[in-house]
Design goal:
Strand order of the largest sheet: 1-4
Shape: elongated
Radius of gyration: 15 Å
Distance between the termini: 24 Å
Order of helices and strands: HEEEE
Structural class: mainly beta
Number of helices: 1
Amino acid sequence: YSIDSLLPIIKKVSPCTFEKGESIVVEGESIDAVYFIIKGRCEVLKKNQVDNRTEIRTVAQLSKGMCIGLN
């Protein structure tokens, strides 16, 4: 890809930050953004109902250079 071909995308990018423990994307909710991780890391968590209780488990760890939010 050339820089010229990427300019329309680059012009729409804006930085944002998230605090530790803050949700970026919630399963089942619609999202109209893609978040590229440039610093830090995040976990992808999955909720499951087991015997009338909710279990939360980590299904992925994302870090610098990865993205989240693609539907």
